[in-house]
Amino acid sequence: MVDTGNGAEPGGRAAARYVGIAAELREAIMCGEYAVGSQLPSETTLATRFDVSRGTVRQAVALLAAEGLVGSRQGARRIVVGRERSQSFAELNSFAQWAQAMGYRVSGQVLEQRRRDADAAEAVRLALQPGDQVLSVLRLRSLEGEPVMLERTVYAGWIAPAVERIPPDCESITQALYEDVGLVFAYGEHLIDAVSAGVEDSRLLVVRRGSPLLRQRRVTTTHEGRPVEWSDDRYRAGSVTFSIRNSVDANPLVRQMGDLRLMS
Amino acid sequence: MVDTGNGAEPGGRAAARYVGIAAELREAIMCGEYAVGSQLPSETTLATRFDVSRGTVRQAVALLAAEGLVGSRQGARRIVVGRERSQSFAELNSFAQWAQAMGYRVSGQVLEQRRRDADAAEAVRLALQPGDQVLSVLRLRSLEGEPVMLERTVYAGWIAPAVERIPPDCESITQALYEDVGLVFAYGEHLIDAVSAGVEDSRLLVVRRGSPLLRQRRVTTTHEGRPVEWSDDRYRAGSVTFSIRNSVDANPLVRQMGDLRLMS
DNA sequence: TAGTGGTCTAGACCACCGA
DNA sequence: CGGTGGTCTAGACCACTAG
After folding, report:
1. Could you tell me which residues are beta bridge partners of residue A8?
2. Would an 8 Å CB–CB cutoff place A178 in contact with chain B?
3. Is the dihedral of CA A163, A169, A174, A178 positive or negative?
4. The whole model's pTM is what?
5. In this complex, do A89 and B253 lie within 8 Å of one another by their Cβ atoms?
6. What is the pLDDT of residues A219-253, one digit of tens each?
7. Which of B79, B43, B95 is nearest to B256 (CA)?
8. Cα separations (Å) of A67 from A153, B30, B89?
9. Which of A87, A131, B142, B191 is the most buried (most CB within 10 A)?
10. Cβ within 8 Å, pair B262-A247
11. Residue B237 is nearest to which of A193, A225, A247, comparing CB atoms?
């Protein structure tokens, strides 16, 4: 009974039972065993099949619902609403982790890096005092050798030394910071809109001035809620698309008017 | 004991206890009673305070976690990570409902509407047979009198009659379809990217050709997973921003039996 | 009306955090 | 080490869906 029935994580840590059950169901959905639009077995049936309580089954299907794979309504059986899992946190926060997951060859290059004082807006976003030091970095990211994204990041001063130790051609900053100082990017807030390519944008991304760019601005924080970085990432049009799946019960995304005070 | 402690919904339906508890905590967070970065009371404390079981408390905080307001790590108290709720399926799926919730004056105008046969791509997205009839609609949406979004929607043939009954200047199609035939948009899949304004785009949105537009393509389905519409919406740059808050806890779940949630 | 998901309880044990 | 969240159980009742 100690065995979870799904083995242990590669890291050696045991997986929760419901995670394994979710994985099994997810696999069945992605393989088409449960077709899109069809019903899932009832919770009671699944509880019997996996020999767990109904609560554990509900945890498993909650996971699938969060991924946008299944939906539910009281009184009716759960149905399959999709076959592809929508983006994970890592995919939204780390360009390299997303690209690698998609099987792309990714590279990055630091073009500029310097310490300076935080301006008022940055101080607010990074929870610093105005005048505190920050590290400003300009990076060009490429996919399959093609430049696709320009990243302007401002790191809080306390993490600057670790960032400066990262080689300029490092692929994944997220991973480097984790391996170096154990920093985990735990929460993110993202603003997505479209902008015209400026002078620097157009030169580095090799597009015409004024051509459309997909912009993702974000603040990333640690587990403790401590802001680590504030970034403005601009993608060449056509190179990247954000995908979101939602349901009337769960939805991670909202629209906002253009003139945001905090995040301009 | 029948009273939920939080009254009933306006519609007359009783609210779940955990929803009321979440509302109370949410209010406290938004009012700054629990500051961003500070800790929430422990689950046990909250269970005592609200006189419910720990499971119910966990459902409540799961709701807040899904909204991106709080985060958690095993062994440590939950912390507040944000003050603004990012929520509502309606906000992502219905332009009018989003705008109205934000307090904006919204309007819409049908510029073109006609039935035709579905092409191959549309048939796939709407789960139709190639050659089945669809209803193609071009709508211009305005905010505060300013045109901000151009909507090119293809409705599955089975809902076409109801769509055709909608007045051309109707503000909310979502609401109209609900009131007319009880149709509920339950699930959505969205693709967000940036494109250049084409000839028609630039004329109707009053922007220069080639200027950046934020594009949201989406498929919306019913509770049963039946596709209703496929739409290509283009926003004038600067008019609208999408916002997402996410967390590394792939695990949107929480609780002992409920579901709910995220995205990322 | 039978089946199903939604809510809730009152326990239990464990892994992890911080002092 | 005590406190905390994460996981899990085995019940219960209700609201809703579907035949």
Report:
1. A14
2. no
3. negative
4. 0.78
5. no
6. 888 887 789 999 999 999 888 888 777 766 654 44
7. B43
8. 29, 27, 15
9. A87
10. no
11. A193
